[in-house]
Amino acid sequence: MGYYIEIRYFGKAKKQIKGLINEVDNKFNLKKYHKVPHITLIQPFATNKQKLLVSDFKKICSKQKLMKFTVDGIGVFPFFVVFLKVKPNKELVEFRKKLLNKIKSYCRVNDINRPYKLHTTIALRMGLIKFFRIWFYLKQKPRIIFTNNIMRVTLLKEGKILYEYDFLSRRLLNRKQAKSSKILSKTFKKLKNN
C-alpha cells in the first residue's frame, strides 16, 4: 500500500501544529511517528498504474477551485490516537469524493466504503494511561481554532512526495519543485493577492 494523498500545512499553521506535536512527543516521551503535520485525504492505497494515477490526480486538481477547512479542538479515536478536529468545507468533501471515484477502478483503496473523519494526528501508538494523560493535557490548553486555505494537495509514494498540485500557480510540481522554498514563497504571494 505505497500511495496516499494528503493536505500539508504551511506557514504559521504548520509551525503551530508541529510545535504542538513536538511538545506532546517530548512531554510524554513518545516515539516520533510523523514528521509533517497533515490531513490525510485518501489513506494508503496500491496501484500498478502510476502514470494513470498521476494523470487523474492532476486532472481533478486542475478543475478544483481553492478550498478551505477549519481546525477546531481536540478529538480522539479510541484508543491511542489524539488529533485536531478538521471541519472541511463542502468543496473539500466533494473533491475527496471525486478523487476516490476516479481512482477506485484501478487502485486498491481500503477506505472506500467506510466513513472517514478528516483530522490531523497529534499523538498515536501509546499505552492507555498515557493516552488519557495526553488527552487531558491537551484539553487543558487553550482551544486551537483557525481556518486555512488549501494551497496544495500532495500525492505520496512510500512516504515521500511524488507530486504536489499547487492550486495557486495551477500546476503540478515534482518532488524537487514541491520542496523548493522559492516556489513556495511565490505561492504565498499569490495567496495574499487572491
Q: Which terms would index this structure?
A:
single chain; 194 residues; alpha+beta; Cyclic Phosphodiesterase, Chain: A; four-stranded antiparallel sheet; 6 helices; 38% helix
Would you write up a description of this structure?
By secondary structure, this protein is an alpha+beta fold. The protein has one domain (3-193): Cyclic phosphodiesterase (Cyclic Phosphodiesterase, Chain: A), CATH 3.90.1140. The protein has 6 helices and 10 strands; from the N terminus they run E-H-E-H-E-E-H-E-E-H-E-E-E-E-H-H. The protein has helices spanning 11-27, 50-62, 90-103, 128-140, 175-178, 181-193, and strands at 3-8, 38-46, 68-77, 81-88, 108-109, 119-124, 145-149, 152-157, 160-166, 171-174. The chain has a 6-stranded antiparallel β-sheet. The model has no long low-confidence stretch (mean pLDDT 92).
